[in-house]
Amino acid sequence: MLLTLDVGNSQIHGGVFDGDTLRFQFRKTTQPIGSSDEFGIFLRAVLRENSIDPAGVERVAICSVVPPVAYPLRAACVKYFNCEPFVLQAGVKTGLKIKYRNPAEVGADRVACAIGAAQLHPKRDVLVVDCGTATTLEAVTADGDYLGGAIMPGVGISAETLASRTAKLPRVEITRPESALGRTSTESIQSGLYHGHVGAIRNLLAALTVEAFNGQRPQVIGTGGFARMFEAENLFDEIVPELVLFGLKHAEFLNRETEKK
Hints:
The protein has 2 domains: 2-87, 2-Layer Sandwich (Nucleotidyltransferase, domain 5); 97-247, Nucleotidyltransferase, domain 5. The protein is an alpha/beta fold. The chain has 6 helices and 11 strands. The chain is globular, with a radius of gyration of 19 Å. Helices cover 37% and strands 24% of the residues.
């Protein structure tokens, strides 16, 4: 079995693949960053609690945008799963042609999303919208070219910034408001967060469709923790919460096959 770990700024999203089947998924907060033993004990415990024998995990694949997590998580894999993990980073095989001016700048999570999208819809132009701590958009052509995209603050960061950088605005629940017209401070913030984000995503999708695909509409995939909140807005053709994990699984497979040769 393959254990996949997507380390984000807010959460670690994990999953276990048995062949091509995703057996189960889990999430834990990224902060505070634990020691190698804390990571290892947590991972073995969460596997056992979901009726998976940790001894059955033969390989681990990691993508991370949090550098301080790299060493303790790698050490946990070596100590608790007896394997050197595959890390999605610059220089590994992805199956994509990275067209960024500096390919090393592309976040591992963005690459994993693009790989997952290309595998899910081969020979199709795809736009991925990952609604997480940051909201990112990725443009991937039918030929497997990763063109780039856009990054903006996620809805959670926007809410936190309003609360922390203003004297009187409160922290609010992040939710879909009943109307755009807020009649309290809380309702007004919720409206701005939600509808502002919807408008930004919709505008970026339109602009990227023109610039990346000459106006030809691509398949649009939503993913990330906040994607479901926008489901009623018809921004996405589909929502695939585990897209990063599938992309990570394919990258691990590509590099393992290369090592065999």
